[in-house]
Design goal:
Blueprint (H helix, E strand, L loop, with lengths): L6 E4 L9 H17 L2 E6 L9 H14 L5 E5 L4 H13 L3 E4 L3 H13 L22 E4 L6 E6 L3 E6 L7 E3 L7 H11 L4 E5 L6 H11 L5 E5 L2 E2 L15 H6 L4 H9 L13 H7 L10 E2 L2 H13 L3 H14 L7 H11 L6 H12 L7 H7 L5 H13 L5 H15 L3 H13 L7 H27 L1
Helix pairs in contact: 1-9, 3-5, 5-6, 8-10, 11-12, 11-13, 12-13, 15-16, 15-18, 17-18
The protein binds one RNA strand through helix 4, strand 7, helix 5, strand 12 and helix 10.
RNA sequence: GUCCCCAUCGUCUAGUCCGGUCCAGGACACUGGCCUUUCACGCCGGCAACACCGGUUCGAAUCCGGUUGGGGACGCCA
């Protein structure tokens, strides 16, 4: 009977690129909202001007777009909403729920240290709380937090969480420079944007009672909270740059498919029985906050890689060919034919874990000149197979057709005449054509390469072997 | 230090709410084999966990208490 429209938000602060932890929070918000037919709002929390930048804001938006996490409203910029925040602060002041505090930062710092030394929680002592002071240069506005009682909420993933109000102190709502603090800005924005569900990282659990107290002081309805566990690095500490690839865009550049990342992020902390792979539609349909686990999880890069390989294997040649182009260009390839790429992709699909892999593996198809792998050269390009290579070159030169079926027939005759097994020439041939010891099947390789290139490469390898002798 | 949260294979997890069907299932990784012109794909198999201690109970991964361990929060950062 809940007729109220669900409104969620994702509020990254543009002090860094969107990392996979943030992306997962965004994903959970998005899945929840799309399932319920709600509204998803993007809000950039750029109040820390010193650490925010346009560049990171762009990177965050680019990341969201790449992942396909679309929003219905925004992006709002918190720094442009100070007027709204101030209305709420004034309201609190006028109802006596907040007060001006004249304590200096030094004084507060001393108090915190003293409390820590005594083994207590560092809290503001409430010195100015009942002094009835007015605004003054350097003064701040604080919330009058209840000294007794408890503040609790029913977290949608963690269950009931409660705090004694005496653990909380009178938090600052407005800084001495007049700007609102994080807690105030978040609450003011969430109220004014009509946010009904706050789904965020569980590093915010401790912030929640403080924010609830602001809602209460304001007499505004409190949203539902869901705190999702954090993502940890393999060493079980908070994920950071020193753990390698953490930004969403880094995964894009390494050749991951957005859906593979999404799928992998969804399964980190959330599950649906034994199912591992989900389409976007299934994710939306099956996601639920109560199936989100309560404990932090380590990001499993191997599993993501495996998923990526699976999605590559199961994507259409058309799609992959399109996605592959930028990677091929990265290797300096130009004037690529869509059709050729498609053919190459088809042969590389089962052996590529990323698009970057695939591009690398496809180079020999497009390059004019290939180079031989040193080890492959030493091991397989020896003079004892010269005769066989010349023989097959002649036969291929004269072939009336140059497709797989025709090639296989030519080889059957070739092998019979020479009384050998394919094994004997397969590797030397592979090295001659691709430069490497591992590649797609030689018949498919030959067909895609075409007669001209195949014969050229055979001629080249023959001279090469001769020159070594 | 204080407060909050968490605890099943190396990792992600199912099972925990409503104790028995779980000497614990799946996935990744690792590993043995099959397939095979290479590398992969695929297929078959293996290794591997209920943190610990007490309690409740005929019976506990599942309920209760404690211990230990981990994470988070304690800013005029967000």
């Amino acid at each position: 009977m809940n007729q109220e429209k669900i409104v969620t938000r994702f509020p990254p602060s543009p002090t860094g690129y969107l990392h996979i932890g943030g992306a997962r929070t965004a994903l959970f918000n998005w899945l929840f909202t799309r399932q319920k037919g709600g509204k998803f709002v993007l809000r950039i929390e750029d109040t820390d001007k010193a650490r925010s930048s346009d560049e990171t804001t762009k990177a965050i938006i680019e990341s969201m777009e790449w992942l396909g996490l679309d929003w219905d409203e925004g992006p709002y910029f918190q720094s442009q909403r100070y007027d709204i925040h101030n209305v709420f602060i004034e309201r609190l002041l006028s109802t006596g729920q907040a007060y001006h505090c004249h304590c200096s930062p030094d004084e507060l710092e001393r108090g915190r240290k003293a409390a820590m030394a005594k083994g207590l929680k560092p809290k503001y002592d409430g010195k100015c709380r009942d002094l009835g002071l007015g605004p003054a240069p350097g003064s701040v506005v604080r919330l009058k937090t209840p000294k007794t009682g408890i503040t609790q909420f029913n977290d949608l993933v963690k269950g009931r969480i409660r705090f004694d109000n005496e653990e909380l102190d009178d938090l600052i709502l407005r800084r001495s420079d007049g700007s609102p603090t994080y807690h105030m800005a978040v609450v003011a924005d969430d109220i004014s944007l009509g946010i009904t569900y706050v789904i965020r990282g569980d590093d915010h659990v401790n912030n929640t009672p403080r924010q609830i107290l602001i809602y209460k002081a304001l007499g505004e309805p409190i949203p539902q909270y869901a705190h999702v566990p954090m993502i940890l690095a393999p060493d079980k500490t908070r994920l950071s740059k020193r753990h390698g690839a953490v930004s969403v865009l880094a995964y894009r550049d390494m050749g991951y498919l957005p859906h593979a990342l999404l799928n992998s992020l969804a399964r980190l902390g959330w599950s649906y029985g034994d199912q591992e792979k989900f389409t976007k539609e299934e994710l939306i349909e099956k996601f639920s906050l109560k199936n989100v686990g309560k404990s932090a999880g380590v990001f499993n890069a191997d599993k993501l890689l495996d998923l990526n390989a699976w999605y590559i294997r199961n994507s259409s040649d058309e799609f992959l060919a399109r996605e592959l182009i930028p990677f091929l260009q990265q290797f300096g390839l130009k004037g690529l034919e869509q059709q050729k790429i498609k053919e190459a992709v088809a042969t590389l699909k089962p052996r590529s874990k990323t698009l970057l892999d695939m591009a690398e593996g496809a180079l020999f198809y497009f390059q004019e000149e290939i180079t031989y792998d040193k080890k492959a050269d030493d091991k397989f390009l020896k003079s004892d197979i010269l005769g066989l290579l010349e023989d097959i070159r002649d036969r291929l030169e004269k072939a009336s057709e140059f497709n797989q079926a025709a090639l296989e027939k030519i080889f059957v005759a070739f092998l019979e005449d020479n009384e050998i097994k394919l094994k004997k020439v397969a590797q030397p041939l592979r090295v001659a054509l691709t430069g490497k010891t591992a590649s797609p099947g030689i018949f498919e390789v030959m067909e895609i390469l075409g007669r001209k290139k195949v014969v050229e490469r055979l001629a080249k390898v023959i001279t090469h072997i001769r020159s070594k002798a």
